[in-house]
Amino acid sequence: MPSHTSASEVLMALGALAVAQEEERSSGELDALTGSVMSALDGFRESRSEVAA
Predict the structure, then answer these.
(1) Looking at the domain assignment, is residue 25 inside a domain?
(2) Measuring CA to CA, which of 18, 29, 40, 52 is 20 to 30 A from 7?
(3) Mean model confidence pLDDT for the chain
(4) How far is residue 49's CA from residue 53's CA, in Å, rounded to a whole number?
C-alpha cells in the first residue's frame, strides 16, 4: 500500500520533537520522537516520488 504522508505530518512530528527538547524530556523519549520524524520524512519522500512517477 502506498504511503501518503503529508508535509503537515512531518511538521507535527518536528513540533513534537521541539517541544520535548524544550521540556528536557528523557533521551529515550527524544530518540523515539526522532524516529517518528525520520519515519514521517521517509513517508513524505516516498509519496513525493510516487507523484513524480
Answers:
(1) yes
(2) 29
(3) 89
(4) 6
Exposure of 6 in the CB half-sphere (CA atoms within 13 A): 3
Looking at the whole model, is its pTM more than 0.90?
Answer: no
Q: Which ranges of 2-26 would DSSP assign to H, the alpha helix?
A: 7-22
Distance CA 34, CA 51 (A): 26
- The Cα angle at residue 43 between residues 4 and 9, in degrees rounded to 5: 75
- Mean pLDDT across 17-37: 96
For the chain, the domain total comes to 1
Domain that holds residue 14: 7-52
- Residues 22 and 4: their CA atoms lie apart, in Å, by 29
2 within some domain? no
